[in-house]
Amino acid sequence: MLRVTPYIKAISQISIQEPLTDVWMSNPHYYSEKYARSVNPNFKEFMSLAESRRMGKLLKRALVTSLDVINRSGIPHPDAIIMGTGLGCVESTEHFLEALCRDGEHLLKPTHFMQSTHNTIASLIGIHTGTHGYNCTYSHRGISFDCALKDAFTQFRLGNIGSALVGSNDEVSPSYYVLLKKIGLVGQDEEICGEASMAAMLSDCSEGALCRLAGVRILYRPSMKNLRNELEHMLDEAGTTYVGIDAIVTGISGNKANDNFYLQILQDVPESVPVLWYKHIFGENYSASGIGFYVAVKCLQFGIIPQSLFYHTSQVGEGTAPRKILILNISEGKNYSLILLEGTCGK
Amino acid sequence: MGKPICVTGAGTISAIGINKEQTLASLLSKKSGIGPLRYLNTEHKEFPVGEVKLSNEEMASMLGIQPGIPQTRTSLMGMLALKEALAEANVGIEMLHDIGFISGTTVGGMDQSEQHYIDFLENDKYNQYIATHDCGACSEMIADYFGGFAFVSTISTACSSAANAIISAANLIRSGEAEIVVAGGCECLTKFHLNGFNSLMILDTKPCRPFDATRKGLNLGEGAAYIVLESAESARNRGVTPIAMLLGYGNACDAYHQTASSPTGEGAYMAMAEAIADAGMKACEVDYINAHGTGTENNDLSEGNAILRLFGSNVPPVSSTKSFTGHTTSASGAIEAVICILALQNQFLPVNLNWSHPINKNGAIIPVTDSRPLRRLNAVLCNSFGFGGNDSSLLFTKSC
Question: What is the residue-averaged pLDDT of chain A?
Answer without folding.
Answer: 95
